[in-house]
Amino acid sequence: MLHDFKRLMSARFLFTLGVQMQAVIIGWQVYRLTHDPLALGLIGLAEAVPALSLALYAGYIVDRSRPLQIYRWVLRGSLLSGLVLLGSQWMGETDVRRQIIALFISSVITGMARGFSQPAMFATVPRLIPREKLHQASAWMSSVMQVARISGPALGGLVFGYFGIITAASVICVSLLLAIACVSLIQADPLPTLAHAKADLFSGVRFVFKHPVLLPALSLDMISVLFGGVTALLPIFAAEILFVGPRGLGLLRAAPAVGAALMSFALTRKSIQKNAGAWLLTAVSGFGICILIFGLSRSFLLSFVALGLSGVFDSISMVIRGAAVQLASPDGMRGRISAVNSIFIGSSNELGEFESGVAARFFGTVPAVMMGGVICLMTVCGLAFLFPKLRTLDLRTLQAAPMP
Prior knowledge:
The protein is an all-alpha fold. The chain has one domain: Growth Hormone, Chain: A (Up-down Bundle), CATH 1.20.1250.20. The protein is built from 15 helices and no strands. It has helices at residues 2-34, 37-62, 67-88, 96-124, 134-163, 165-184, 203-210, 214-228, 234-241, 245-267, 276-296, 300-328, 334-363, 365-386, 388-391.
């Protein structure tokens, strides 16, 4: 099964690589065609709405089917999104309206695929890896994803900057085709776990909201990234504040993943199961401080470093949160619980991009970033006070709770 896990990691890497390249290209194209920060927020919303709308249903389906088969369809849907992006560039520079519509359609298809991606991946990993290795597997999967998040934006910006959007979109499609090939080589095809066959569509929601650790941990991530995330505004910083163009945008998009990948690799060798709650709260606080520094910076180097450090802290948070969700989830509910997790993550990422665009439109780009950093720090203080079990979380003692 170790070979199958490596193939799954390869597919995850290639999928994330393609999606990250696509995000850079779409963000730059939308802002180039509209010069409107709100459009950047709307493109994030176009991906978030289908992803969040389908998440609970996706988790329900994953728990009653072969999750690996679902993941194959995720990759095929993502490939379709890449082909739409590629096809949009044959419309001509004068047909701006149709180009923008095609970019939004591409984002919607990506959102639909992502709605099923997290539950399918989350339910597959424990069927390939023993329970005692799940914490290490979580760190490895995080490392692979972060490496893709580094190379994806950087590669997307560089290929786009030097060779144009058609070449960049073609590379995206090739990456997704290779991901499909990797998944097709996985020999194990585990059957669904039907231990909780009577559980309904919303059982994962009830489980998370009754859990004394999962709810505050997921809420901490959602609120901090929802308001503290700056991804949607990076095209504005690249074009109008730091003056670095699409190549600089690719590097800025990659910076958080550089820090996250380095930390994720470190966490594959060093366990932070003990005092995980304290690590989590400290990491989110560090993330908020980095966002404040980024908002004040007018130096590309300082901005890159601040974003890189934000990735370091975000990686610690992500590994702890992912391990906590895996360890606390009953086998027959992993898809539905992961779907709730993906809703929290999607709310913080894609809806965060919409929030950033709206805030920048009405308050200005820099004030929007500063406001987000402050809200992030306030969230840490509030949740640490309201949920004392979060402060004392120890992953070594966290066991799968019975179904509520």
